[in-house]
Amino acid sequence: MSTPAPAGTEVAAREVLTQPGFLRTLAYRICAIVSYQVVSVAVGWHIYQITGNTLALGLIGLAEVLPFVCVAPFAGYLVDHLPRRRLGMAACSGLLLTAVILLSVSRGWLPFKGVWPMYAAVCLTGMVRCFLTPVYNALFARVLQRRQYARGTSIANVFFQSGLVLGPALGGGLVAWGGTTLAYSVAVILAALSIGVLYPLKVEEPIATGPRAPVFKSIGEGMRFVFSNQIMLGAMALDMFSVLLGGAVSMLPAFIHDILHHGPEGLGILRACPSLGAVAAGLWIARHPIDKHAGRILMIAVACFGLCTIAFGLSRSFWLSAAILVAYGICDGISMVLRGTIMQLATPDEMRGRVSSINSIFISSSNELGAFYDGVMARLLTLVPAIVLGGFVTLCVVAITAVKAPKLRDLAIKDLQ
Asked: Could you tell me the pTM of the whole model?
């Protein structure tokens, strides 16, 4: 690692982008997330075409989140105690295996019928995904200096969101052009690339200096750290409940088919729109980092996220829906950069794996449980009322967080440096 520089020194984007380790870490994350997103679009379309059931879409989220939540605490412990690069390669190997299983289902190579092998593959995805973000965050802290974290987080978010734009658009286009078989084949290649770019990475790995703490005691230390930190806990809870109750993306296969009457290419476009907005937000923040009133800006962004959810549910125009989802992504992108910066600056290096895993549980449980919640609510209330109600509930979540977490509400990033 380079010699540390004083905290608070202004860091140019070029300085961060010339770090080879940072570029390899980004490439690993992008290839992995694009592979996962291609699979996510393809499997959602595949299952809905077979079942025609919105609840079946919700079960995709449930099938992923249950193994994720069960494995994630142990993943954080392993990331804090084992070589991060090898763990990242193992996780990407799991993504590759998932895509191979789905490819085999699509081609009819397996003797099993129905959709349950697809749900089994999604379960495997949940198990390996819980390693991807903790590994990335731990490597991020090793390839950059502390003073570069804020700028690096903004730049990384641009690349991450670019992957989220490319992945759904690519997935939808591949399904429309060559069917799910082609989409799953490309996902296999991308997962293999993520392994390849991580293999040559040279980074300091954790060195054991004494007997390791018992697994459950070590996990408990990470949980106590998070739950005793009002700023970190407030940011995580704000993200979890807003996405859990107010997300709309999981219902897009049904919305695009039943409300907007478009095919898989339309699904790919709409799935990419939130990430397109997040990229725009990330590019702006990379040039104009947010410091003052960061907590208030975070809460305003999540409130606008809820308003966009309501507007999307009421839209009947494809391109209006796309524009709303871009605005939805801008709001989510702002909150993502701020949450990522808070987590990197507030977490001790020796606890990054455990804290990142706990954060991943908050985020992924909100995404996947949110998909299940959306599916159930769509079945009970029908699709549009369920989406609109979720937006109103998000506004309530922001109001409660503003009252219950004043340290987060009044936060400035410089307070953590």
From this structure: 0.67
